[in-house]
């Protein structure tokens, strides 16, 4: 389960980079190929104007994509959207410069439409906007294809104008697909939080039933012992002993319940640790053996939690990696992170000592090493750990 979770998290990031790079590639391809026609047939001022427009349009596209990636999926506040308008204005002005330099209305309208499609619009607006922009692009294409410019330049061919005309709908479709991926990722995370909440509620219910039963029995036994104290001391002592046995039984039941609750499979423990580190802003690589559920979770589970806490408290870096693999009759857990500036490495304190004590009790070993700006903790425990 943890392997699929880590793979899904990586897929989400890869999907974004694929989406953003595809949009920028199409943008740059269309701009540069149209610039080539200006370079061949245009004047030096027109070429300079075109290059300025291409540079401004590319900067606008990159910054708008960065904003799009960071903005929430919900419709959000209009104030957030208004902060994107200067970047849109840069894209529109750059598109106008490109269109003027090439003498093409389609070029200016196409790149203006793409800048507008890089904004996260309210729900339902994007589709209507794309339909409207397609109509405007078609009209601009028709004007370019039918009129003759005073300088004798005429839009010829079909492929490049079509490429520019499709920039806006392709951009909108790509970002719409990315939003779907983010929705699925958010739903997956919400499902995980719901499962954890349900598990806590189940534990609370079991604990209430267990303690409620035993406390009621103990109260009745003590009440009976109090009533029998005067006329039958021996029977009262027996009731007190029974109450003490009930206390021991309640203690054992609570301990067993806590052990069952803590018994999270080790793959899930590692996946939860990776999710926690990612939520803190770190880039995390997670590699888990396909048979990791056979590893001693009662030993390595607390080690994973302690190591994760140490990375968050003492790492100070931006990346981390967790791996669990079987090697030469032992399970090997490796937690590695980078530490920046004055941040202390993992293990400067009681954390590493506690890990070493826990692992040493089952015949395992711990090794902590620094490799440049990275700190690595390697934990090795036997495959067969006695209960």
Automatic annotation (TrEMBL):
<feature type="transmembrane region" description="Helical">
    <location>
        <begin position="16"/>
        <end position="40"/>
    </location>
</feature>
<keyword id="KW-1133">Transmembrane helix</keyword>
<keyword id="KW-0418">Kinase</keyword>
<feature type="transmembrane region" description="Helical">
    <location>
        <begin position="155"/>
        <end position="178"/>
    </location>
</feature>
<protein>
    <submittedName>
        <fullName>Histidine kinase</fullName>
    </submittedName>
</protein>
<feature type="transmembrane region" description="Helical">
    <location>
        <begin position="125"/>
        <end position="143"/>
    </location>
</feature>
<feature type="transmembrane region" description="Helical">
    <location>
        <begin position="88"/>
        <end position="113"/>
    </location>
</feature>
<dbReference type="InterPro" id="IPR036890">
    <property type="entry name" value="HATPase_C_sf"/>
</dbReference>
<dbReference type="InterPro" id="IPR011712">
    <property type="entry name" value="Sig_transdc_His_kin_sub3_dim/P"/>
</dbReference>
<dbReference type="InterPro" id="IPR050482">
    <property type="entry name" value="Sensor_HK_TwoCompSys"/>
</dbReference>
<feature type="domain" description="Signal transduction histidine kinase subgroup 3 dimerisation and phosphoacceptor">
    <location>
        <begin position="199"/>
        <end position="263"/>
    </location>
</feature>
<dbReference type="GO" id="GO:0016301">
    <property type="term" value="F:kinase activity"/>
</dbReference>
<dbReference type="Pfam" id="PF07730">
    <property type="entry name" value="HisKA_3"/>
</dbReference>
<keyword id="KW-0472">Membrane</keyword>
<keyword id="KW-0808">Transferase</keyword>
<keyword id="KW-0902">Two-component regulatory system</keyword>
<feature type="transmembrane region" description="Helical">
    <location>
        <begin position="47"/>
        <end position="68"/>
    </location>
</feature>
<keyword id="KW-0812">Transmembrane</keyword>
């Amino acid at each position: 389960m943890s392997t699929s979770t880590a793979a899904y998290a990586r897929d989400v990031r890869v999907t974004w980079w694929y989406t953003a790079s595809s949009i920028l590639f199409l943008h740059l391809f269309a701009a540069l190929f149209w610039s080539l026609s200006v370079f061949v047939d245009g004047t030096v001022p027109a070429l300079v104007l075109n290059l300025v427009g291409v540079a401004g349009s590319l900067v606008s596209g990159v910054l708008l994509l960065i904003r799009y990636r960071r903005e929430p999926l919900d419709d959000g506040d209009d104030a957030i959207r208004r902060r994107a308008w200067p970047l849109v204005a840069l894209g529109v002005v750059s598109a106008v410069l490109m269109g003027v330099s090439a003498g093409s209305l389609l070029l200016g309208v196409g790149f203006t439409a793409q800048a507008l499609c890089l904004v996260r619009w309210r729900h339902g607006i994007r589709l209507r906007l794309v339909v409207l922009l397609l109509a405007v692009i078609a009209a601009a294409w028709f004007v370019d294809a039918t009129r003759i410019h005073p300088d004798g330049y005429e839009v010829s061919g079909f492929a490049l104008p079509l490429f520019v005309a499709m920039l806006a709908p392709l951009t909108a479709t790509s970002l719409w697909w990315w939003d779907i991926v983010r929705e699925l990722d958010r739903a997956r995370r919400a499902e995980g939080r719901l499962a954890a909440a349900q598990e806590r509620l189940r534990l609370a219910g079991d604990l209430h039933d267990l303690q409620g039963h035993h406390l009621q029995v103990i109260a009745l036994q003590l009440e009976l012992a109090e009533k029998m104290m005067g006329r039958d001391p021996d029977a009262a002592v027996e009731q007190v002993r029974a109450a003490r046995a009930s206390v021991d039984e309640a203690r054992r039941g609570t301990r067993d319940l806590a052990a069952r609750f803590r018994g999270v499979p080790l793959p899930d423990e590692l996946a939860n640790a990776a999710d926690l580190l990612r939520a803190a802003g770190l880039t995390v690589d997670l590699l888990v053996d396909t048979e990791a559920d056979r590893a001693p979770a009662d030993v390595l589970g607390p080690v994973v939690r302690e190591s994760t806490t140490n990375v968050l408290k003492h790492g100070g870096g931006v990346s981390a990696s967790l791996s669990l693999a079987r090697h030469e009759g032992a399970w090997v857990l490796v937690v590695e992170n980078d530490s920046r500036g004055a941040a202390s490495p993992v293990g400067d304190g009681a954390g590493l000592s506690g890990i070493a004590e826990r692992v040493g009790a089952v015949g395992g070993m711990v090794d902590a090493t620094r490799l440049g700006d990275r700190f690595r903790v390697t934990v090795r425990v036997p495959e067969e750990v006695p209960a």
